[in-house]
Write the structure tokens for this entry.
Amino acid sequence: MSFADSPLQAALDQLRIPQLGAMFYPDWRAGKSCKSPFREDQNASFSVFDNGSRWRDFSTGEHGDAADFVAMACGLSPDDGARRLIELAGVLPAAPVRQSSAGREDEEAERARKRSAWPAFEKPSGAEIRAISGLRCLSPEGVGIVADRGLLFCCDSGEGRAWVVTDATRRNAQARRMDGKPWERVGAKAWTLPGSGAAWPIGLREASSFPAVALCEGGPDLLGAVHLAWCSGVASDIAPVSVLGAANRIPDDALALFAGRRVRIFGHADEPGQAAAARWAGQLAGVGADVDGFDLGGLLQSSGAEVDDVCDFSHLDVDEWERHRDDIEQAFSFAARCHTRGFSGEGGVMVQAGACEATAGKGAA
């Protein structure tokens, strides 16, 4: 087989760096002159060029193609980065990345060193909970529940106060500025803190005492899932768990904690989000989880924008809500009933009248 016909070349032809950037760093925007997604970058010292197939960091001298980009994003060797790219492109079945025990220990020691420099996390004050709910147009009650469960914190940073999603394991943490602006250090609104294991599902261990799990993508959707569960009166039955990025696979040690659990996946409506939802569903089914998904596609917010994620799910146009009432009312019923809705078909959103009615028709912050 020639290189031109190889699975790697097919993957390189299929996936370009802007697409991969959207998977790994949702708020980062690739360009001929942009900030690095891999590190703190005060200047636009990063470049994506050659029709999105090549990148270079002019500050560090690092450069490469899409496979090298994946290796950098995932902390893999160049060979393992190429395998991961092939997997993401769907050219070949997933192949396990093998690493020696010494290599794993060195990698974890380096992550622990980086985590030791994290700022002190504090439970949000009432004013901060209200501010965060205002940023995302969610109920303070729902946001407060997330904080009470130990999944939402605030901290000080060099760029001001921030809110952070993490859990008791402290294996993964993602921060956003309280003023809603992008981080200057990464050029994006979401900053996965150094030393994080980005694939670790936040909230998974805390979910052990709940009968049902709402699995979603990203920090804001972690808040949105609890808001919507609170709106439907089932917040005490549903645990939110979030994977921070559509490119991530659920790690093996995390999969074991899903075994036998009732899980509904709320994937993003875009192509990477739907691919991630299908991938996670396959992984969860493989460990015996009772899993299905809720399709968010095909609906409009009051702004006219399409519903893409769980937070958008809270801002459905009132007329759309009326047209899809039957689906809406089943979105979070899975805590009590199994398999009310699969991945195919029209989407739906849960915005219950009364306590949550005020969030209907608002645009995402």
Q: What stands out?
A: The chain has a mean pLDDT of 82. The chain is about 30% helix and 15% strand. Residues 3-89 form a domain with the DNA Primase; Chain A fold (CATH 3.90.580.10).
